[in-house]
Structure formats: structure tokens, C-alpha cells
UniProtKB/TrEMBL annotation:
<dbReference type="InterPro" id="IPR052352">
    <property type="entry name" value="Sugar_Degrad_Dehydratases"/>
</dbReference>
<feature type="domain" description="Dihydroxy-acid/6-phosphogluconate dehydratase N-terminal">
    <location>
        <begin position="42"/>
        <end position="354"/>
    </location>
</feature>
<keyword id="KW-0411">Iron-sulfur</keyword>
<keyword id="KW-0408">Iron</keyword>
<keyword id="KW-0479">Metal-binding</keyword>
<keyword id="KW-0456">Lyase</keyword>
<dbReference type="InterPro" id="IPR042096">
    <property type="entry name" value="Dihydro-acid_dehy_C"/>
</dbReference>
<dbReference type="Pfam" id="PF00920">
    <property type="entry name" value="ILVD_EDD_N"/>
</dbReference>
<feature type="domain" description="Dihydroxy-acid/6-phosphogluconate dehydratase C-terminal">
    <location>
        <begin position="364"/>
        <end position="558"/>
    </location>
</feature>
<dbReference type="Pfam" id="PF24877">
    <property type="entry name" value="ILV_EDD_C"/>
</dbReference>
<dbReference type="InterPro" id="IPR020558">
    <property type="entry name" value="DiOHA_6PGluconate_deHydtase_CS"/>
</dbReference>
<comment type="similarity">
    <text>Belongs to the IlvD/Edd family.</text>
</comment>
<protein>
    <submittedName>
        <fullName>Dihydroxy-acid dehydratase</fullName>
    </submittedName>
</protein>
<dbReference type="InterPro" id="IPR056740">
    <property type="entry name" value="ILV_EDD_C"/>
</dbReference>
<dbReference type="InterPro" id="IPR000581">
    <property type="entry name" value="ILV_EDD_N"/>
</dbReference>
<dbReference type="InterPro" id="IPR037237">
    <property type="entry name" value="IlvD/EDD_N"/>
</dbReference>
Amino acid sequence: MTKKTPDTLRSARWFAPDDLRSFGHRSRMMQLGYAEEDFRDRPIIGVLNTWSELNTCHSHFRERVQDVKRGVAQAGGFAVEMPSLSVDESFTKPTSMLYRNLLAMETEEMIRSHPLDGVVLMGGCDKTTPGLVMGAISAGVPMIYLPAGPMLRGNYAGKILGSGSDAWKYWDERRAGNITDEEWLGVQGGIARSAGTCMTMGTASTMTAIADAMGLTLPGASSIPAVDSGHIRMSADCGRRITEMVWEDLTPDQIITEAACRNAAVVAMATGCSTNAVVHLIAMARRAGVNLTLDDLDALGRTTPLIANVRPSGKDYLMEDFYYAGGLRALMKQIEAQLDTSCLTVTGKTLGENLEGAQVYNDDVIRPLSNPVYKEGSLAVLRGNLCPDGAVIKPAACDPKYYQHEGPALVFDSYPEMKAAVDDEDLEITPDTVMVLRNAGPQGGPGFPEWGMLPIPKALIKQGHRDMLRISDARMSGTSYGACVLHVAPESYVGGPLALLKTGDIVRLDLDARRLDMLVSDAELAERRAAWKAPEPRFERGYGVMFSRHVSQADQGCDFDFLQSDYGRPTGEPDI
Ligand code: FES
Ligand code: MG
């Protein structure tokens, strides 16, 4: 299997020549206290660590990086930790999505500009998985993804709490006056109680499952809880394996093929994935030169049953239960017939070989195909005169009575305007009203914030309603639920038809036909279009300017145009 020799290692270009530059590189390694034998003729492994004290989901990465380094050293490599932009979901304003591409750029350039032969990517909190993977695909050196793992189940007063989902639920009860302040504080202290990512099937668990299904992690690594000792062992394994991958020259282009991207999409659908998966999966695939489209995802969704009974799409369980039930390998085993098991993975073996012996230990958590949570996959793609380039809905996470729905629109142009209205107890609204928020897309948000699960107006909450049809050009958290149409493209801020909708217009959703329309005549729409004025740019300086000029729309994955693999001449290796 060995394809690389010490002479042909990428890092040898920095360290091997008998010239002044390489003298400089070697002497600077010696400045760090290393002898030449420590780093010469060995794979140099960059460990890209998205640890930060404000990334609550990655708080164990400080220790785990030592385990990765231990593994690399055992296999004869030399590991260097490289801190990377820690895009955290909890605190980043206006939204972490604004910075996914910045992490991708940083990852690509850090790899390209340094003497690295391979990388271990340490991520997990929502945007870190796609950001790291997108950048590493473009850099092209062997890589392995180390998922942070989900946190333990939440717990308060003997009740199990799920990230995100239960926060929303208890918030609605608090607004309805059904729980005390003491209970509310108890939930606050119990809902996130260990290192690790959100333990519902939110964006983090979805994206790490996608990386796993693509063959980018050690088999089943995405399911191991962050604080399980198995996670420590998996980290050391990543170090050992990446070192071998360098000698084997097992580069990402051999792993991330069209078939691997389709496998990832099928697995995402079967897990009850976050709607965000659509945007990130398209962006990751495109970096690998695979043109995965919304229509491909809708088609795969129609033929893939949702079999992971994990909240919010499933009813009862969380990621910890999913792991005990056999984890992602067991889930993939159930749907093996729908996967291309010949795909190569980071193990150097095929996906099929990695799944050998995988078993389900609890078939209420990982359901058999004969008893799915939902007969189709978790996402559906809509089109119509409101969303000519597509919109996304998660049917499994909303009340089926909304699958066919017609009602008057109540339109808000900004989040503060909407927030004031939902808190107004006298708001004129009926249960069939369709609440709409616009100017919340990639450009308008700015950065495509997770505002799409618009809060149910107090006026309806008090009447006992907990769901209603909502439409926006925003995203929503993977831990959210409800009848929310998201990612309307093109977004209103750039003049998509959502910009033309008026309060009182009738909106119709027909899920079976995958249609979303406003019942407004073409002549009337043309008139409104002529009167529409483009808003001012959101940014006049800084990173935001680059973001606004180069980001693509939701259906294209929101990558920057100049980072697409087919944009311009290949960058190539640095001249040294
Ligand atoms: Fe990090 Fe949810 S906040 S995964
Ligand atoms: Mg999230």
C-alpha cells in the first residue's frame, strides 16, 4: 500500500534540501526543542483544533489533542497542533453561518502554506464540520475527521432534556405561565451538562454523521459521546491512522466521490437530519467537484425511511441512546441496500467492510425498515412562485395537518418587527395564518441566521396552539421543529419573489406536490416587482463585504464563488 517515501513527502520540500531556506526551517524546528530525527523523513500531521473557551461543545479538545498526538507518534509521525477558528454556535453573532466559509478558507490556507503531509480535523459544533471539511477538500492532503461527539443527555428533576428542542418547549410553557421560575432555572442548569455537541439530532450530530457516512471519520466515530473513554481511544486511533494514510497517499478526492456524497445524503435522511444539512452537504460536495442538487436530495428523501428515533424528528431518544443502540454503523447496516458500499473510506477499506458485524441493540431507537419513524426521509424540497430556486421543510417534525394548507400571510420585514408582534397578546391572528419573515437569508440576515422557527404568537399560545405554518428565507436550528418552510431561494434581500408578498395574500402549501405558492396574479406580481427597490448593502467594511459580494444562495450551498473548485486556475503548491 505504501506509495509515499520519505523523499516524496510534501514536508520534505521544506526540510530536506541542502539550501538556505531549508536550513532556516530545520533550525526553527530545533528552536522548538526537536532534534532532526524527530521531524525528518516522517509524516508531519497538522492537528487542526477548533478549541476555544467560548466553544462549549469542544471543551474536551484540549485533552483530546494530546491523544491524537500520542497516536501520531506511535505510528512514527510527527504531530503539530494548529489552533483554528473556533466557530461556536452558542455565542457567535449575528450567526455562526457567517463564519463557516471563513473557517473553510483558513483551513485551506493553513494546510497549503505549511509543511503538512496530512491533517486531523477536530470539530463538531455545527459549522465546524463543513468548514473544516470544505477547506481540507480544497487543500487536498490526506485528512481524517475527529468528531467532538455528543454531550450526555440533559437532566432536570428526573426528566430527560434534549438540546434546543426542550429549551423551546419549556420557553413556550413559561410564556403560557405553566412553569415556575425555579423550574425554568432547573432546566437552564440541566440542559447542557457535559462537554460535547448538542445531543439531539441537530446540525452537529447530522453533520458529523454525514462526515462518517462519507468515509471521513473512523467507522462510527460520530456516535461516541464526547466524555466516553471510547472517545479518547478513537482520538488516538485517528493519530495512528492518519500517519498511515500519508504513506498510502489516501487523499480526499479518492474518498469524496459522487457515490460517497449520495451515501451521506441517504444517511442524513435516515437519521432525521437537520435542514442545515442540505446547505452544508451541497457545499461540501461541490468542493469535491460533485454537483449534488436540491432535487437529488428530495429524490433521495422520498425513497429513504427515517429510522433513527432521535429527537426532534423522532419522539423519544437522544444521541447517547443512539450510541448504546449501536450508533451510526448499526443505522447504516439497516439501510445497506440503499448505500454504495464499495466507497473507499479513511480506513483504506470500503464502507461495506467497515459495516461488517454492525448490529442494532435496541430496535426502538434504531428502527427496522418495517417500522420506520417516518416513511420517507426527513426533508422535502418545495418549489413554486414563492421559491423558484427551492425551499426546504422537515415534514417529520411538523403536524401533518399542515401538509396541505392555505391561509393569509402575515409578513414581517425584520426580526425585531416580528418579535414585537408575537409578544402582542392582542395581535389579530388565526391558527391558519401563515407567518412570514423575510430579509433573513444569506445576504439579508446577514449570514443566514437560524430564525426560521418563528415563535408562535402569544395570542395563539394562550389559546393552546403550539404550531402554525411559518415561512422564511432563514435557516433554523437542527434542534427545532414545527411547520417551518426555510431557505426560500432566491432570498428576498436580493429580490426573490418572497420580497413581493404582502400581508393578507393567500399562501398555499401542497407538500405532496412539493409546491409553495402565493395566490397572486402574474400581472399583480409584475407591478409589485417594478415598484421593488433593492435595499442598501449590509456591510461597508471588513469580512462582511467579502461575504456579501461572494456568497451563493441557499440552493447552491452558500459557498463563496471564488472557493468553488472550478473557479479560476488551480492555486497549486507554494513556490519555495
Ligand atoms: Fe455546539 Fe449545538 S451549540 S453543537
Ligand atoms: Mg444548532
